[in-house]
Design brief:
There is one protein chain. This protein has about 425 residues and is of the alpha+beta class. The chain folds into 3 domains: about 120 residues, Beta-Lactamase (2-Layer Sandwich); about 140 residues, Immunoglobulin-like (Sandwich); about 110 residues, Sandwich (Immunoglobulin-like), CATH 2.60.40.1170. It has 8 helices and 25 strands. The strands form 6 sheets. It has a 9-stranded mixed β-sheet with strand order 13-15-9-8-25-23-18-21-20, with no helix packed on it. A hairpin with a 4-residue loop joins strand 20 and strand 21. The longest helix has 19 residues.
Length: about 425
Amino acid sequence: MISAFFIFNLKGEVLISRLYRTDFKRSIADVFRIQVVSNSDVRSPIITLGSTSFFHVRVNNIYVVAVTKTNANAALVFEYCYRFNNIAKSYFGKIDEEAVKNNFVLIYELVDEILDFGYPQNSEIDTLKSYITTESVMSTAIEESSKITIQATGATNWRRGDVKYKKNEAFVDVVETVNLSMSAKGTILRADVDAHIQMRAYLTGTPECKFGLNDKLVIDKNGPGGTDAVQLDDCQFHQCVRLNEFDETRTISFIPPDGEFELMRYRCTSNVKLPLRVIPTINEIGTSQVSYTIIVKANFNNKLSATNVVLRIPTPLNTTTVDCKVVTGKAKYVPAENVVVWKIPRLQGGQECGFTATADLTSTTNRQVWARPPIDVEFQVLMLTASGLIVRFLKVFEKSNYQSIKWVRYLTKASGTYQIRF
């Protein structure tokens, strides 16, 4: 994949260097320093000079750089760079120039373990921590070499077999982010869901977990669906998931890593249920005033509630004052941002609340047409999914047959991507 790996500081000094093949010399680092670090015009994360490509990611005050002369898979190279980032953070908290200098011996150990001849090998944090430690390595480590080999190359290299907990628990969080763009006439221009299923597994041994989703689950958008079917455009799984079983039965079967991990990521653009409906009526009264009437309605069960609801309502650039009237929440004009911020702490399902305001404008010699930016809406709704996806069951099987406690939580949210034009 790659021939060399470097970490530079912002001055272009090499902090870490490792050459994996003979097609490069260490002097290639000077090319990156001159052409990229010293060149403020460079904005692309991939720079090709001659036959050499530099893939670089800036993190705090350092550059993480991978170099190759082959036609490497760019996505894989960047995945490695970001994976290295996460591994470094798990070892020493923050990755910056000082941390690299203080832990350079450890970093060389990690880099040599993660990459073999320029190809990624084992990058599971739990496995790496089992035999690359920040403490001094005792001679007994040689006696454990057989266990290390199994962990590094076995089928479940993401989990140790000696994990023990007094209380066996599994927490599942289904987190969905709703993206909406609605026209002034109320037509939905875009409505989709970006989501992930986060899991925290505190389970003894090497348990087999089975995870079931909706009965009517369609992965292919062109597949047979319906108005009540959950249609996912695409989904990605953690490497522990047995994909062939999911293809056949739509059951997610896996041996989970110990602790927190992302089990699944998915996207949905069909049958998206919009949690909040916003109806704006905005009129320009001559050149001196703008009147606002906005209604917000919660489109979900009255047993649920939306929290931290924030509407950012734009005002013209020449606004002087805004007189706001609300029954629910608080509204305040923010001149520096040319918006009125309406905050509603809690909105019960089925509830409807209104906002009225009058913005006074100052007279200008050259009057420009107001562009009318969209209204931005932020919110969070617990125990609701906009895609309709639900967890039907989560079963844990382990040879000792212990009882486990399972928790499932749903969260639908929006932050800056739920927009209504007017």
